[in-house]
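Is fe (ii) ion placement plausible here? Inputs below.
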Amino acid sequence: MPDPAASPATAPYDALLLVSFGGPEQPADVMPFLENVTRGRGIPRERLADVAHHYDDFGGRSPINDQCRELLAALRAELDAREIDLPLYWGNRNWDPFLGPEVERLAAGGHRRVVAVLTSAYPSYSSCRQYRENLFDAFDPHAAAGVTVDKIRHYSDHPGFVAASVDATDAALNELGDLADDARLVFMTHSIPTAMATTSGPTPRSADGGYVDWHLAVAAAVTRGVEQRRGRSYAFDLAFCSRSGPPSQPWLEPDVNDHLAELKQAGVGAVVLVPIGFVSDHMEVIYDLDTEAVETARELGLPLARAATAGTHPAFVGALVDLVLERAAAARGEEPERPVVEGGAVGWYDCQPDCCTNLRDPTRRALCQQVPQPA
Ligand SMILES: CC1=C(CCC(=O)O)c2cc3nc(cc4[nH]c(cc5[nH]c(cc1n2)c(C)c5CCC(=O)O)c(CCC(=O)O)c4C)C(CCC(=O)O)=C3C
Ligand SMILES: [Fe+2]
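Reply from A.M.:
I modeled the complex. Tokens:
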């Protein structure tokens, strides 16, 4: 049995569970993976076939699982450096290693109070509640045995996540050489249906909803950091990639490819794409940005550099450990500081019942709260 006294800093937690999206690791995995992702989501068949080709171009293997392995190794090293003894587990929503069996293993290992770190940094149904539904399902069979899970707060506006993005944006500007002076910063994230965007985050909500609000705050903070470092100002925008869904359904815009054409038209000299919506260079980054958007920019004659995602940047890994310690202190009834960048919202630990609404099935149970009864 784990010794709760081993690491007072992380008490009451006795294990850390990394929770991610998952991705195929060989060609035979691609279609079953896509079916897992899109089950009941109304994604057109043609879009699925199209997305399967994105994976084919990379040998049928997404880099995302390897990136989770690297993040786990980096977390282990950071915990060791701080002399914190905390077992690490890892489960995905859509592909092996799946969350369910991993939580079985964790419970069988004698762990009782688990802290979850999601590789998803923003509020929205897709990036928050859907993971919480999966966490609920995975832990529910063990609830009677007293196994519980808490998650850290959404962390995109944590100074550590922003610092990693500032470094990456600065490096990408350096790649542009003299053209950096003319560069526009285009912050990138996953498009989602506008109906999902406006119901993201807790109520009361702004007209745009929490998903867009948080991205704009992070984009502004990264831009300020880059401006401080380079001693000059930069214009920035937020653009979107990876739209799926039927054409009749409105999704967040502008699409990155349309936006690049507009910037070229407006006389912008160069672009840095900064994918703040993703924590690693997985398929949505290496295909949608590095393949498609790069090709669009080439056709337009618009010089482009792509900033790295947070990945295993020390500021990001350090921030995740800080967030775990902060969550642990809060669970012990202390009042830890909750650092956020200027203009950021202080993230909440427990999502309220109406946070990041499930529009298809509002009664589906999720971690953090009892579901509201349908009206
Ligand atoms: C907000 C958001 C994030 C960021 C937060 C987070 O990280 O969770 C994210 C991440 C990712 N999305 C990924 C892949 C896919 N997303 C899809 C579909 C969708 N994503 C959506 C949203 C998001 N997705 C939505 C609203 C849909 C429509 C279907 C639905 O309503 O659920 C589809 C289906 C085909 C298609 O329609 O494109 C695929 C294959 C991968 C893995 C990449 C790899 O393999 O390396 C990752 C990390
Ligand atoms: Fe939420």
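Short version: The first strand starts at residue 15 and ends at 20.
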